[in-house]
Amino acid sequence: MKISTLTKAMVSGVALSAMMAGAAFADGALVYDGGGKFDKSFNEAAYNGAERFKAEGGNYQDLEISGDAQREQAVRQFASRGNNPIVLPGFSWETALRAVAPEFPDTSFTIIDTVVDLPNVQSVVFKEQEGSYLVGILAAMQSESGKIGVIPAFNFDLLEAFACGYAQGAKSVNPDIEVFETYVGSGFEAFNDPGKATEVAKSQLDQGVDVVYHVAGGAGAGVLQAAADAGKFGIGVDSNQNHLHPGSVLTSMLKRVDVATYNAMKGVADGTWEPGVITLGLAEEGVGAAFDEHNASLITDEMKAAVEKATADIISGAVVVHDYRTDKACPAL
Amino acid sequence: MNTLPRWADIALLPVLNVVLAFLVGGLIVLAVGQNPLEAVGIMLYGAFGYGSGFGYTLYYTTDFIFAGLAVSLAYHAGLFNIGPEGQAYVGGLGVILIGLALNGTHWAIMFPLMIIVGALFGATWAFVPGYLQAKRGSHIVITTILFNFIATSMMSYIISRQLKPAGVNSDESAPLEAITRVPQLRTFIDLFKNSPVNLTFFLAIAALIFVYWLIWHTKFGYAVRSLGNNPVAAGYAGISNQKLIMIVMAMAGALAAMVAVNNVGGVQGRLILNFVNGAGFVGVAVAFMGRAHPVGVGLSALLFGILYQGGQELAFQMPGITREMIVTIQALVILFTGAMGDMLRAPLARLLTRAGATAGGK
For chain A, first and last CA: distance in Å? Predict the structure, then answer.
């Protein structure tokens, strides 16, 4: 009796997987990075993009991994089942993608935040420096002390690109402004240390800084909290974090991982998906400064106009924001 | 009397515990609106239904056997080693250092070298708590837990600051060349294609046999068991308890370090941040479920291998079941087989005595 139920269950399991293999054809797939689906930041942005695709009639399956051993396995599972495209947010996917992508030449892969040069891979990277330039302008206009701060998680090229763009934007408004840069920690674990981030932010605020920009993922909550507690201003990153402390978060530097995810899925559905490197900057609306009801009281018309002018100048090429990653140096910091 | 016949103690009771865990797990699956029978079917299909899935099951089993043995061996000496996680992590440093130093050498030479150097690193890491227990009386449970934390921080620093090559984003060491890596079984057996199970699996089987022989068929094993059962008597019989504690802990650390040979030397071919990923802690559950006996450890490691690989399949096939729910089901198995493992003992004993009495009466 027990055995027969078990056999039935097994057969139904096999049948189900066979069925799903057929039904899932041409559905997109999204496999989250280590942080997991609802991290209020990077992965959640990817999820939001996929949900937008679904809301418009598309379909996708997603999966959270529970260890590095599952990376290749997950990518291969989706590819074998026929999901297309397969979106992989985060540079940690690089090794697994390099191993699996050549086995499935007809499947489209999109990786976000790093470049993998393979014929069926689309690599999406962002011009974080351009969006940071805009929030730098807002910071300089808001600051009364003439001192602003930036707090990256640690000394890392990608994060320096944010800080450098921010300093350039601020100095375009006020060439004499002082920009303080302090790190939360010294490695990836700093992204998950809001307590330390609070201390670092407090130290900057004590030195007279009155606007502080965090580039520290999950740890950034501590920076925004410290700024709000001190009656000063914080700036969010990646997702729109204006709602975290309304009236204290001046703005957020948006990095549209959701747009990248949505475009990949939509592109395959429409037949417009193409391999190669895609760089999303201001012109592509891949980065930007967040304006909503939570910071409306802080942003004056003058500030908005300055941001709009800078946006137009960057898109037209009249202003070129230096990218730290090109020469590992920052003229403004 | 509440004593169970031997067969019921080593076979029936663990099986009943697992069944109970699955029943409760099934209720949870039901509560989120999924079909539990279908879920069991998918899990079994994922664990055994196709070659690559079976390969993953054996890969996880390999890790759990080593971690389980590291706990079991120490347990026979009356030491509760909760440190296989850190011991395996530090063992990984030994494996990658020898691997990178002789990168490009054939695996037939490198496999034994990685085992030896990895074991040395793991043994050193476990020796320190052993020393502190033996000479200073610091409780082994506390020190091994704390050494897990020290290992995590130390390895983060070493990987991200020392071993990471320039131009690489992720926190990982440089890779080993293909010829140096422990070969995966798929290169010999086509069935295992795309799965990470490698020659280390046979090392795990050998380790099970070795530990059995060591504990029950050597003078050393006799001393270990004497120490575990009655340290005072062992001391009176002329056994140096202090020395034995340090040796046993070092051996446990060496066993745990074989997890690193499997992952660093075989599967990933490089040292990745947090590659142990909880296998060391699963080892504690495996050892308790397996009653610290190599046969039991082998079987319960297989069960956890099935749960891990089947769980991944479940997350892939049934989007309604999330990663967290699978951890919940795994936790239930640990709860019922470990923490509440003796819950059914008394009722079962009563039942069997009554049945025996009835049968004897006729």
Answer: 74
